[in-house]
UniProtKB/TrEMBL annotation:
Record domain Histidine kinase: where: 20-221
Domain of life: Bacteria
Record-given protein name: histidine kinase
Coiled-coil residues: none
Length: 222
């Protein structure tokens, strides 16, 4: 069991660094993309150019993610239905679940919460996708949303390959990913968003059995 929110100081520093690096990379990137577009009209070179374009798109995506991480927080908190946000996100990942032979079991209560809905959607999306990606040969994805006292409690449970204990500590560190196409930024972004909503975030896992992610949000604003 690992409390992922204890690294907030470390996170602030990483955020500053990330913003600096991302800005430096972004401008030459835009120029490169422009010239590649022009070159793309030459037939022979087109395979290489496509590869280059894919790599550039990936760098662009990562710098975008890093920038969003480092940006000062917008404060457009509104009362939202967490159920609605969750239902929309579930709808979005249904095809992905189907493709991976993942059965979804949902238990979603109505809970109203003052939050930034698109940020919360981002958290749900990454946690759901991580769960599905952990079950490449199928399994069950349990998703709960309940109101417990003055908290919204969200539990996302998969029957996937799990996480080894020594790896559990690395979660939420930037660029830690075990996936070929992973960025290792998802959990870090989740952690930051949850922190901004004064929530808590814990992960429990057993190798070859599965992973349980628990997120709570306080419903009474301070
Ligand atoms: P990414 O998904 O791009 O790899 P994340 O920050 O979302 O980056 O996750 C980091 C790493 O944590 C993943 O590469 C994976 O090894 C591990 N992980 C996250 N969620 C799960 C899960 N539900 N089951 C198993 N491993 C997970
Ligand atoms: Mg992820």
């Amino acid at each position: 069991r690992e409390d992922l929110l204890k690294k907030s100081e470390q996170l602030a520093l990483v955020g500053q660094l990330a913003a600096g690096v991302a800005h430096e990379i972004r401008n030459p990137l835009t120029t490169l993309k422009g010239f590649l577009q022009l070159l793309g009209e030459d037939k022979k070179a087109s395979i290489y150019i496509e590869l280059l374009q894919n790599e550039l798109n990936r760098i662009e995506y990562i710098t975008g993610e890093l920038l969003s991480l480092a940006k000062p927080q917008a404060t457009s908190f509104k009362i939202n239905s967490l159920k609605m946000i969750m239902d929309q996100t579930v709808e979005f990942i249904k095809i992905e679940a189907l493709k991976n032979n993942v059965k979804m079991v949902l238990s979603i209560e109505e809970v109203m919460f003052e939050c930034e809905s698109h940020k919360i959607k981002q958290v749900f999306l990454n946690l759901f996708m991580n769960a599905i990606e952990a079950m490449p040969t199928g399994g069950t994805l349990n998703i709960f949303l309940v109101k417990e006292k003055s908290d919204a409690v969200i539990i996302i449970q998969d029957t996937g390959y799990g996480i080894k204990e020594d790896r559990l500590r690395k979660l939420g560190e930037p660029f830690y990913s075990t996936k070929e196409k992973g960025t290792g930024l998802g959990l870090m972004i989740c952690r930051k968003i949850i922190e901004n909503h004064k929530g808590t975030f814990t992960i429990e896992s057993k190798p070859n059995e599965g992973t349980t992610v628990k997120v709570t949000f306080p419903l009474i604003s301070s």
